[in-house]
Amino acid sequence: xxxxxxGAFVAGxxxxxxxxxxxxxATSAPFWQAVNTxxxxxxxxxxxxxxxxxxxxxxxxxxxxxNDAQAVLVVQNSGTKAAVIHGDIGQTLTGGAHDGFYxxxxxxxSTLNPGFTRGCFGSTFPGTTRITATSELLMxxxxxxxxxxxxxxx
Length: 154
What we know:
mainly beta, Immunoglobulin-like, 6-stranded antiparallel sheet, 10 strands
């Protein structure tokens, strides 16, 4: 009995370990995070959300020196009232090991307080030649009237 339990434990641990070895690229979604852009970021211009000129957003591609890249939806609240936001990012990859791959990510509904800037990060893909990203920002509800979209590539 003891050997069977030990064998089952070892088999389960090996299966779990193999899952880690083949894990998908890292991602920050579904959590919004503070962002600071630098020369590794290529972004569209900020645009106003259709419901408020105080909620601005843009789509960015972040690329490191190893040519790993990911899309980010960046949202800024320049107003005096909090807004409830929800974001979606779609990434189409061109070149490298993930050529032709499409990936989407969503960030949880969250309160964006006045004066804050937050980002919803998509997955990081190694050796990607180009990412075309489409972002969708919903504010204060999930109706289509509460949605604004943007896109960028890099």
